[in-house]
C-alpha cells in the first residue's frame, strides 16, 4: 500500500482516537481495547510501524485530559465532539475506502484515465471537423426513414472527361451529425482487378477530417466522391471503403465500412444537366 494511503489511515485514526478515547478514558479496560483494535487495523494496512508513536502520543494525551472532560465544560465538549464525529466519520470512512480501493485496484484509475483520454480525443476530432455550409448542401427528393438503416445508398456514377464522380445518398438521422468517407475509398474493376483510388470530395472538402451537418434531420443529402476516369471497358465494379492511415474517427463510430459489391456501372450511369454544379464546398 502506498504512503498516501498510510497517511490517510493515520489521519483518520488520529481523529477517531481524539474523539473517542477521552470519552472512555475513565475505563482503562476500554482504552486498552481501543488500543488493541487500532494496532490490529494498522497491521492489516501495513502501517503498524508508522502508527506506534502517533498512537502512543494520542493515548497519553487522552489520559492526561480526563479531568477536563469530567467538568461541565468538558461534558459539553464531549457531546459536541461526539456529534461532529457521528457526522464526519461516515464521510471520512467513505473517502478512505475510495482512496484505498484506488490504490489496491489501480485498474480503476487506469480505466478512468482511458475514458478521459477517449473523451479528449473525440473532442479534438470534433473541433477539427469541417462544417458543411448549409447553402452548399443539396437535399435529395426522397424521404428518409430511420428504419431503412444508416448506411449511405449508392445513387449514381458519372463518367466525365477527366474523372469519375460517384454520388451517394447520405442519410441524416440527427439534428447535428458527423459523417466521414475515408481516403481509403477505391473502385475495383471486377474483370481486371484494376484499382481507381479516390481523389477527394466533389467541391473540395477535406477528406482527412470529419464533416459535420446541422439542421437536416430525417433527410437524405448528396455526397459525391471523385475517382480517376474509368476505362470504357469497365462494366462491373466493387466500391470499397478500405482503412487508411489518415483515418481519424471518434469512439462512437460503428466500425462498419461502406462497401458496394457487383455494381453494374450502366445501372447507375448519370449525366450532369447542371454544368459546373457542386454538391458542397
From TrEMBL:
Q: Could you tell me what this protein is called?
A: DUF4296 domain-containing protein
**Stretch forming the signal peptide:** 1-25
Instruction: State the UniProt keywords alphabetically.
Output: Signal
Can the keyword Signal be found in this entry's annotation? yes
Q: Which organism is it from?
A: Bacteroides intestinalis
Amino acid at each position: 500500500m502506498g504512503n498516501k494511503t498510510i497517511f490517510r489511515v493515520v489521519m483518520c485514526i488520529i481523529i477517531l482516537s481524539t474523539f473517542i478515547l477521552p470519552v472512555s478514558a475513565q475505563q482503562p479496560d476500554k482504552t486498552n481495547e481501543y488500543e488493541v483494535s487500532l494496532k490490529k487495523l494498522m497491521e492489516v494496512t501495513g502501517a503498524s510501524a508508522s502508527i506506534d508513536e502517533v498512537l502512543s502520543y494520542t493515548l497519553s494525551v487522552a489520559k492526561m485530559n480526563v479531568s477536563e472532560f469530567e467538568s461541565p465544560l468538558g461534558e459539553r465538549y464531549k457531546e459536541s465532539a461526539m456529534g461532529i464525529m457521528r457526522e464526519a466519520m461516515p464521510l471520512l470512512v467513505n473517502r478512505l475506502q475510495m482512496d484505498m480501493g484506488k490504490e489496491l485496484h489501480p485498474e480503476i484509475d487506469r480505466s478512468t484515465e482511458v475514458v478521459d483520454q477517449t473523451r479528449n480525443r473525440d473532442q479534438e476530432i470534433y473541433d477539427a471537423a469541417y462544417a458543411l455550409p448549409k447553402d452548399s448542401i443539396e437535399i435529395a427528393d426522397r424521404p428518409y426513414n430511420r428504419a431503412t438503416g444508416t448506411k449511405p445508398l449508392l445513387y449514381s456514377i458519372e463518367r466525365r472527361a477527366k474523372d469519375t464522380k460517384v454520388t451517394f445518398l447520405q442519410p441524416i438521422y440527427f439534428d447535428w451529425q458527423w459523417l466521414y468517407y475515408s481516403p481509403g475509398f477505391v473502385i475495383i474493376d471486377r474483370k481486371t482487378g484494376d484499382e481507381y483510388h479516390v481523389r477527394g470530395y466533389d467541391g473540395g472538402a477535406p477528406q482527412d477530417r470529419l464533416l459535420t451537418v446541422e439542421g437536416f434531420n430525417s433527410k437524405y443529402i448528396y455526397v459525391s466522391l471523385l475517382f480517376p476516369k474509368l476505362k470504357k471497358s469497365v462494366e462491373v465494379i466493387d466500391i470499397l471503403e478500405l482503412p487508411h492511415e489518415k483515418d481519424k474517427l471518434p469512439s462512437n463510430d460503428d466500425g462498419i465500412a461502406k462497401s458496394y459489391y457487383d455494381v453494374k456501372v450502366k445501372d447507375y450511369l448519370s449525366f450532369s444537366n447542371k454544368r459546373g454544379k457542386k454538391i458542397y464546398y
